[in-house]
Amino acid sequence: MRILKVKIPAAIFICVLFVSIQSYGKEKENIRFSSFVLENGMRIFLYEKHALPLLNIVFAFDMGTKNEEEDTSGLVHILEHYILFRGTQMRTGEEIGRDIRAHGAYFNAHTGRDIATFELSLPSEFTDFALNNQKEILFQLKLTQEELEKEKQIILEELSQIKDDAFRYATALAYQNLFKDHPYEKPLYGKEEIIRAATVEEIQRFHHKYFVPANCALAIVGDFYIDEIQEKITALFGGLENDGFVPPKFDMVSPIKKDGEIEVEMDVNTGYLVIGKNGPDYNSTDQFAVDVLVEVLGRGVVPMLNRPLRGKREIVETLSMGFGAYEYGGIIYIQLTLEPKKIPAAKREALQFLKNARKLSYSKADYQGDAQFYALDYLESAKNQIEFRFHQSQESGLNLALSMATHALRSDGSERVPYIDSIESISSSNLREAAGNYFSKGGYVLISVVPKKGK
Fold first, then answer.
1. How far, in Å, CA of 148 to CA of 152, rounded?
2. Domains along the sequence of the chain with CATH
């Protein structure tokens, strides 16, 4: 059997599954875990759980827009589309789609800055079909210029739609400016001129370079028996060749130092404002405090940013906040809709509030005497919301498989406290420290979208 007797670092497996083990404690006898590495370098994670007769499979490749050059921007996106919808050496895209539908499967893929994922969920009785199907579409691709041209047209239409979506376009600009001079700077969906000119030979070279077992993690969650599926995986994927692939490494993102402002005119009827700031990377312990801080400030039941932006002055109409952590850097962003004339006031009030967030009171413990009784406990509320969403997401076998596969490729392998335990340990002083580290200084990007003049 082509298996290396090497255990994958416990941090990769345990931190993802810890909450699930707790959630399904009453069914422990029906849950088993296994992780191993094939001789060709493919990392395998198996989570046997018989609660539902479903199988969830995720293949993740350490390949994203970070791996593109200026003249190949968009090739990852093209490749993801082509694999999902076009043919292999054995079947056409139509035949693959027909077979997937016949087996009652959910089938999808995603392109990211770090990683590309390919997902399949279906009844567990079709395990053999699922494994064979994924091996074929991922490693036995057949590229033709005719099929490539068809897929390019679909992608170009997607790009057109993005340019017409004010928030997506403004947020993309925020990413590009916060990740300036870093491989993450390249647009997630690619550049139009590169996509139009892409050839089969270029796509083939990209596929041959990155779609190798040593660059891949496979996670399977669901109704199977580990011993049986391990033998099937080894037989199917153990023979794939590894040509000594070594994944490239990149520098960490250097946070920008000065504020930058961009205004874009679009065919819109209202104003849009995206405020972005560099955040912690995926392996930074700061990410837990920032997760809670983002929930408290702009995503919770009563976001604190409501006070300056949606209080008596009603500067903005809608408010949301997000945080994305990647292997080499992170981003924190706020999305606002408002009347165009109120954009200057929104910028001023939001930045002033964020820069003073290091001085705010976030929990009842920050108050004295009777004031504690009347104070809103933003910290506890945020923790409850995060824990609820986390538990809810982990109910999905597909989400679990995605978490395991992507964590395996992003993690630096260091031991870490399970996610929910880390969130629970966050204190009000941790939030103030994170706010001081990430909000108190300059380096904001502010992207405004306004109606075209004369509209």
1. 6
2. 3-237 (3.30.830.10), 260-451 (3.30.830.10)
